């Protein structure tokens, strides 16, 4: 088959490579000229993805994958473009010259009336209208509110094309469900949900995905497929919100939340996720809003979970200020703050919607020198970890990369630091009690004193 993929981001490009490697003729399309130029010149815009570089080279060198700024005629069109959300009110951090406004900490960092921004989906659909013909398979992979495939994509195709009816096409929704760092493996091996606008579309979509997916390909209708993806990420968001709420409770009760969660998870039917400074990434921090948009009165728990997780950077700032106040009382001055981690989760180079960057921005707004380090993100890989530690009066651990576990110990930090034991704020349950025994002053999210 000839396949045209619109959008060469984190999902579109690996998908294009996999489909080309399976023997289909693929043209990958993106409106980003620099990205297309980079790919044509042998570069790669996505790093830290296991197996992607070799797969991309193989697909391009074989001639099965080409890239372009404009769509071309095809048998299958896949739309894999971003779907962010629009807000009527933006997050603001209240700051005064001498520090963070404590009153603002009581107000959750919430978004007012967030709705899905379908501009990219609409533009991508419009771009393929001149090329679609009877019998083509149109696939929307972008995460969207329920009803988008049938109401938005089909409407554009029906009104813009020369077809008598959209029923002459096979239109489906097939959401991705992958883990950053393992995208290639999971696109091939995970089960896949394919939902058609018609039963015939579902059959066509299932048959196509079975040509390159080794997991089970399961058919349903388009609205169900759209909701399933949102349910999966909302489940994680609600679970993290519960863990974060217990973390704050444990601080009040003088209990270690990480120890309590570890013990609770020994129950065969309990599986808490870990608390932290907030929720990030392109999916979990956004997808629940699409559910709220579709059914605002019925999604009370989902909305509350979003408020809890969105407020966690503010809670981190409260801990930060308390630690600074303790330092001042002891005659210590905090100026340079080493931010350990910019990615939203461990061991990946993905900073989209990262709460770590939100915390770093608030620390900077308070007048401190915030020095960000992340070994997985090129622009934050310098200065080096040792250079950051050597000049920091405080270290704030926001992403629990394994690299930090390997390279940081009480002895190495003591040796590097000009302050001789910098203050430490741990938001991930990263630093164990050996740091306290070694004389470090450690404040931990989720751990009461």
What fraction strand? 5-15%
Tell me, rounded to a whole number, the average pLDDT: 92
Number of helices, where a helix is a run of at least 4 consecutive DSSP H or I residues: 17
What summary fits the major beta sheet?
Answer: 8 strands, mixed
The fold-level CATH name of the largest domain is Rossmann fold
The outline comes out as: elongated
Task: Compute the number of strand runs.
Answer: 17
Alpha-carbon distance between the two ends = 63 Å
Number of domains: 2
- Give the neighbour order of strands across the main sheet: 3-2-1-4-9-10-11-12
Unreliable residue stretches: 89-111
Can you name the CATH architecture of the largest domain? Answer: 3-Layer(aba) Sandwich
Tell me about this structure.
The protein is an alpha/beta fold and 449 residues long. The protein is built from 17 helices and 17 strands. It has 2 domains: 2-83 and 118-222, Rossmann fold (3-Layer(aba) Sandwich); 85-113 and 307-444, NAD(P)-binding Rossmann-like Domain (Rossmann fold), CATH 3.40.50.720. The chain has helices spanning 12-21, 33-40, 52-61, 102-105, 119-128, 148-160, 183-189, 199-209, 222-253, 257-264, 287-294, 300-329, 355-365, 385-391, 402-407, 410-416, 434-437; strands spanning 2-6, 25-29, 65-68, 76-79, 85-86, 95-96, 99-100, 115-116, 137-140, 170-173, 192-196, 217-221, 336-340, 369-373, 394-397, 423-426, 442-444. It has an 8-stranded mixed β-sheet with strand order 3-2-1-4-9-10-11-12, with helices on both faces. It has a 5-stranded parallel β-sheet with strand order 14-13-15-16-17, sandwiched between helices. Strand 11 (192-196), helix 8 and strand 12 form a beta-alpha-beta unit. Helix 5 (119-128) runs parallel beside helix 6, helix 9 packs across helix 11 (287-294) and helix 9 runs parallel beside helix 12 (300-329).
């Amino acid at each position: 088959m000839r396949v045209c993929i619109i959008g060469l981001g984190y999902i579109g490009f690996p998908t294009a490579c996999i489909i080309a490697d399976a023997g289909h003729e693929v043209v990958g399309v993106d409106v980003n000229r620099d990205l297309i130029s980079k790919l044509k010149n042998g570069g790669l815009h996505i790093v830290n993805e296991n197996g992607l570089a070799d797969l991309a080279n193989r697909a391009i060198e074989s001639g099965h994958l080409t890239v372009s700024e404009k769509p071309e005629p095809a048998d299958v069109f896949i739309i894999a473009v971003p779907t962010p959300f629009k807000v009527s009110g933006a997050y603001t951090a209240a700051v005064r010259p001498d520090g963070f406004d404590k009153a603002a900490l009581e107000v959750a960092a919430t978004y007012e009336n967030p709705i899905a921004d379908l501009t990219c989906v609409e533009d991508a659909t419009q771009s393929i209208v001149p090329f679609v013909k009877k019998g083509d398979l149109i696939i929307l992979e972008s995460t969207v509110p329920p009803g988008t495939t049938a109401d938005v994509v089909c409407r554009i195709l029906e009104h813009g094309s020369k077809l008598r009816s959209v029923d002459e096409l096979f239109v489906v929704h097939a959401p991705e469900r992958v883990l950053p760092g393992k995208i290639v493996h999971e696109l091939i091996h995970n089960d896949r949900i394919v939902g058609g606008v018609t039963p015939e579309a579902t059959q066509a979509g299932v048959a196509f995905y079975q040509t390159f997916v080794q997991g089970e390909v399961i058919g349903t209708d388009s609205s169900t497929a759209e909701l399933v993806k949102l349910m999966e990420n909302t489940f994680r968001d609600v679970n993290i919100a519960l863990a974060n709420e217990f973390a704050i409770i444990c601080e009040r009760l003088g209990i270690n939340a990480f120890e309590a969660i570890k013990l609770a998870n020994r129950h065969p039917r309990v599986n808490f996720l870990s608390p932290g400074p907030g929720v990030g990434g392109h999916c979990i921090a956004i997808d629940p809003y699409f559910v709220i948009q579709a059914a605002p009165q019925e999604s009370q728990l989902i909305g509350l979970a979003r408020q809890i997780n969105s407020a966690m950077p503010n809670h981190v700032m409260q801990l930060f200020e308390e630690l600074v106040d303790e330092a001042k009382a002891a005659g210590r001055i905090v100026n340079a703050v080493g931010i350990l981690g910019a990615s939203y989760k461990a061991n990946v180079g993905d900073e989209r919607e990262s709460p770590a960057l939100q915390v770093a921005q608030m620390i900077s707004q308070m007048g401190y020198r915030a020095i960000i380090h992340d070994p997985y993100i090129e622009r934050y890989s310098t200065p080096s970890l040792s250079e950051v530690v050597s000049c920091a009066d405080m270290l704030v651990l926001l992403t629990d990369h394994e690299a930090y576990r390997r390279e940081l110990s009480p002895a190495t930090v003591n040796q590097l630091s000009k302050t001789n034991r910098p203050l430490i704020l741990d938001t991930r349950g990263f630093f164990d009690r050996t740091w306290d025994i070694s004389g470090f002053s450690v404040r931990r999210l989720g751990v009461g004193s």
